[in-house]
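WARN retry 2 of 3 for item q-0093 after timeout on previous attempt; input resubmitted unchanged.
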Amino acid sequence: MISAWTLWPRVLVIAIGLIGILWGVSEFPMFRRETTISNIARRILAGDQFKSEILLNQASLVERVDKPATCRPLTLRSAAVVRLRIAEISDNSGLAPGPVRTNLAVDAIRNSLSCLPADPFLWLGLFALDRSAQLSYLRASYQLGPSEGWIAVRRNPVAFEDFDELPEDLRSTVVQEFLRIVEMDLYDEAMKIFVGPAWDMKELILSQMGHVSLRQRQNLAVRLDAAGYDVIVPGTTLKTSQ
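OK item q-0093 returned
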């Protein structure tokens, strides 16, 4: 005969097991949504270009995970990345109007940063969504992620677009970041920045190119030459004529 002293521990173990099973069942739908959003966010950061229809289908999932009751860094960051990408899509995409998408992205980014503030990419996203925003957002991005190449190629064109509004120290930081992009052998990305948002600052950039190795200057010059730009990169022999 089983005594009460022997029975109660067994009952307690069974009860705890049942509670765990019920908790797992209740949490599984949220876990699946979070996994889906995290996978999409990872692919966005890797450069995948999702069609607006796909992001539109996932918008409802984001709404369910971007305001959890507790601080869940990966979930909040993934939701913010997806919201940011949705905000960047053109207005003829079938998504919500531009201002609505922007406000949702800003809210999602702020939620994520409130949970994990040391995120240079999201500080950049917050600055990019509102060019009248405080320069402290851009500063935070540079301070927290000064050398990450994948962030630099996104941040540098944004910073050059507002170059005239930046204080002298940030201007220097932006130019030095461009040089680092060249030094990381990201020549195609550097060329797009140089002939795009940085074009008005080309003389300033070229005056600093002596800090870059000759091989890397030559590689950049080759790409500019192939694209038909009339630019002399210091120390190289290539000069194009458009």
